[in-house]
């Protein structure tokens, strides 16, 4: 059970940051995860009065405030227009709509949970996090850091012409994933680049970047080979949901389906423009 001494809703980010420097203070997102823990928290800091609950689109980026809910992410039109249904797919299995109306993007990213679908999906895109004290850094760097006393203000996705796919395997519909995989591709610095993000291994999501020119008419065998190569570059572990070998096998299958789906869309687009 969690025990909370006092609740504070700061009026400024500076106040929130200062309060959070005490060892026994904790920032709250939606509190969906935190409340399940066993902790004595002297002061819980509610960021909900600081305007961090909007998704803003500019010419170059999509800025997702830390207090945006997973449901906002799921329903975000600008993300859907750019990257299709992948973002929606990455959150739609998380418990239920009421839950996703409370759990936040900030809590999901700051927590760096091994099982996180949200982290797996965001990591595969050109994503940054904005921290109160630590500035703006790449999400791929942030995931490697240990949690500290900083505040996560927003998650920033740089807009680019990339194709995105997301899939996961769960033993039952709303359980944690046994494996979660995202594949993104686009032209980066003039070269065709593929990004593979695999989470719930059961370790937290990691990112792999490959400059592969996969032919649009790649055979099933070739796609299997690319997916196998990508999957083999991650490490896997065993827990109650599955063994390391099973997870690697699932990763190969999901990555293969995602690569195939992207190639099909690409060749469809090319045929239309021919
Ligand atoms: C039963 C259950 C099932 C779940 N299933 C899944 C699943 O299948 N897939 C999945 O991806 N996720 C799953 N989750 C995780 C969920 O999606 C959220 O990631 C989780 O609840 C954390 O979000 P929150 O807003 O509740 O954060 P909280 O619980 O409020 O906070 C989590 C941590 O982040 C810190 N924090 C929060 N916001 C900030 C901030 N802005 N700056 C700094 N620190 C901050 C808090 O201090 C705390 O340490 C599940 C959670 C539960 C409880």
From TrEMBL:
Stretches assigned to the FAD-binding PCMH-type domain: 1-162
Any Pfam family matching the protein: CO_deh_flav_C
Keywords: FAD, Flavoprotein, Oxidoreductase
UniProt keyword Transcription regulation present: no
Top-level lineage group: Bacteria
PANTHER family documented for this protein: XANTHINE DEHYDROGENASE SUBUNIT C-RELATED (PTHR42659:SF2)
Name the record gives this protein: FAD binding domain-containing protein
